[in-house]
């Protein structure tokens, strides 16, 4: 089994075959991070095919399912830290947005960096972020993910609500997702933006240092 096979199985959405394929590739000595990169590349191909009307939402969905299964196998090889020692973080994908693979990878890396993460899931209303912080005032960072240009306003609304909260000075806000840029993050008043999961974990550590 090769890394190319793993990439191919994600592209074709072969969820039933992916677990064994990822395990075999790991057993052959391929690094978990390289296998993950191959799966992310596959999702980019899937996204391009969708954009070009070669595939449709159901195909994107089955590829996402295959990727999630593959990531499950990789998880113990990627996450290494002592969960909880760095403090608490709240994470969610903003209102109207159902994409969670990137958010889940960010959570995995952030847990690995030692944080305890409260995962609010997808399509998270602004009020839920606020309420969860107020129930967990020892939270150090709130992280918001947005994958659609159409949900960038929801990200801006979420950060605006956090910025208006009386406890704003006690928590840091981190944002990310494919359409998000440093410029946009600055404009909406977030404390940090990172383009990928590994840099998100590094930034989280720096934010609480
Ligand atoms: Co969607 N989708 N999708 N989709 N989908 C995209 C995002 C798209 C780019 C495809 C395309 O057209 N090329 C496009 C958005 C275009 C745009 O906004 N400009 C798109 C569209 C249009 C849609 C729908 C509107 C399609 C429709 O219904 N007509 C629809 C919207 C549904 C909704 O959310 N309301 C839709 C639906 C779906 C599925 C449900 C079928 C499925 C998601 C399943 C799931 O997540 N459980 C899906 C998928 C799979 C994709 C693609 C193919 C893959 C997304 C992904 O998982 N990438 C995607 C194309 C693409 O991304 N190339 C696409 C891999 C993942 C590891 O990367 O999520 O970027 P990513 O996360 C990265 C970084 O962004 C960053 O770190 C992560 C790891 O390195 N990051 C953070 C993310 N969050 C962060 C937070 C941080 C820091 C970093 O700090 C807090």
Q: How is this structure best described in words?
A:
By secondary structure, the protein is an alpha/beta fold. The protein folds into 2 domains: 3-77, Methyltransferase, Methionine Synthase (B12-binding Domains), Chain A, domain 1; 87-208, 3-Layer(aba) Sandwich (Rossmann fold). Helices cover 56% and strands 12% of the residues. The mean pLDDT is 95. The structure holds CO-5-methoxybenzimidazolylcobamide. CO-5-methoxybenzimidazolylcobamide binds at residues 40, 43-44, 46-47, 50-51, 57, 60-61, 64, 96-103, 105-106, 143-145, 147-150, 174-179, 194, 196-197, 200.
Share of residues in strands: 5-15%
**CATH homology superfamily of the largest domain:** Cobalamin-binding domain
* Estimated structural class: alpha/beta
Detail the poorly predicted runs: none
The unique ligands bound to this protein are: CO-5-methoxybenzimidazolylcobamide
Estimated radius of gyration:
17 Å
Q: Would you tell me which CATH topology of the largest domain applies? A: Rossmann fold
Number of domains: 2
Helical region count?
9
Number of strand elements: 5
Q: From N to C, what is the helix and strand string?
A: HHHHEHEHEHEHEH
The outline comes out as globular
Lateral arrangement of strands in the main beta sheet: 2-1-3-4-5
């Amino acid at each position: 089994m090769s890394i190319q096979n793993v990439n191919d199985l994600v592209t074709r959405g072969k969820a039933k075959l992916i677990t064994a394929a990822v395990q075999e590739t790991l057993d052959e000595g391929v690094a978990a991070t390289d296998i993950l990169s191959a799966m992310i590349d596959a999702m980019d191909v899937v996204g391009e095919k969708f954009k070009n009307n070669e595939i449709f939402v159901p195909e994107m969905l089955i590829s996402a399912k295959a990727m999630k299964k593959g990531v499950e196998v990789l998880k113990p090889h990627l996450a290494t830290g002592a969960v909880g020692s760095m403090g608490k973080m709240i994470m969610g994908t903003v209102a109207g947005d159902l994409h969670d693979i990137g958010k889940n990878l960010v959570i995995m890396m952030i847990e690995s960096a030692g944080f305890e993460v409260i995962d609010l899931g997808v399509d998270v209303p602004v009020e839920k972020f606020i309420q969860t912080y107020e129930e967990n005032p020892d939270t150090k960072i709130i992280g918001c993910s947005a994958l659609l240009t159409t949900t960038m306003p929801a990200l801006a609304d979420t950060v605006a609500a956090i910025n208006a909260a009386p406890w704003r000075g006690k928590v840091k806000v981190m944002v990310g997702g494919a359409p998000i840029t440093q410029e946009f993050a600055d404009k909406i008043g977030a404390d940090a933006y990172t383009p990928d999961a590994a840099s998100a974990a590094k930034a989280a550590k720096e934010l609480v240092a």
